[in-house]
Amino acid sequence: MRIGWDDAMLRRSQWLALSLLLVAAELPAQETDCTVLRIIDGDTFVCDGGRRIRLLLVDTDERNQSVYADSALMLVERLMPAGSRVRLEFDVARFDRYRRVLAYVYADSLFVNREIVRRGMGHVVVFPPNVRSVDSMRAAADSARQEKLGIWSGSAFECTPADFRARRCGRSPPMSR
């Protein structure tokens, strides 16, 4: 049995180390800033350059689904109005199936995703592997539920946003998103 490194093992380990360095150098930043161009709904907005941003771990009612859809939209417009700078932080998966950027959003020091849920304007929705802030989001939802805020003031789960989009309840959502 041979102990030690031969030339081939040394070259492979050097190649592996170099490859890891190159991959790490090409990884996108874990956060970036953007200027808000417009708010689409309570959980989606557009940044400068036309990038659509989907807030992680929060799902708000769809337009025409309930009064909470408009309330969530107005809340987000107040928290991060058009023209304001926000910080985007990323988790594991960077894009959803619609190619929207998935992000935790901060307006100054305010965690926007959490604030929407804390005020009862959205549900917590988890799509692994993006779970970094799930405990904080669930705590915010528990707080809103206990205080009977927003969607928790009545029967919040008559029709969740996901069920509404899937046409399992409520009126059909608008065709464009």
Would you spell out the secondary-structure blueprint of this structure?
Elements: H1 7-26, E1 31-41, E2 44-47, E3 52-55, E4 58-59, H2 67-79, E5 85-89, E6 101-107, E7 110-111, H3 112-118, E8 123-124, H4 134-147, H5 161-165
Parallel strand pairs: 3-6
Antiparallel strand pairs: 1-2, 1-5, 2-3, 4-8, 5-6, 6-7
Question: Care to describe what's here?
Answer:
With 177 residues, the chain is an alpha+beta fold. It has one domain (31-165): Beta Barrel (OB fold (Dihydrolipoamide Acetyltransferase, E2P)). The protein has five helices and eight strands. The protein has helices spanning 7-26, 67-79, 112-118, 134-147, 161-165; strands at residues 31-41, 44-47, 52-55, 58-59, 85-89, 101-107, 110-111, 123-124. The strands form two sheets. Strands 1-2-3-6-5 form a five-stranded mixed β-barrel. A hairpin with a 2-residue loop joins β1 and β2. α3 packs parallel to α4 (134-147). The longest helix is centred in the N-terminal third of the chain and has 20 residues, at 7-26. The termini are far apart. Residues 16-27 have low confidence and may be disordered.
List the defining traits of the structure above:
single chain; 177 residues; 5 helices; alpha+beta; 21% strand; OB fold (Dihydrolipoamide Acetyltransferase, E2P)
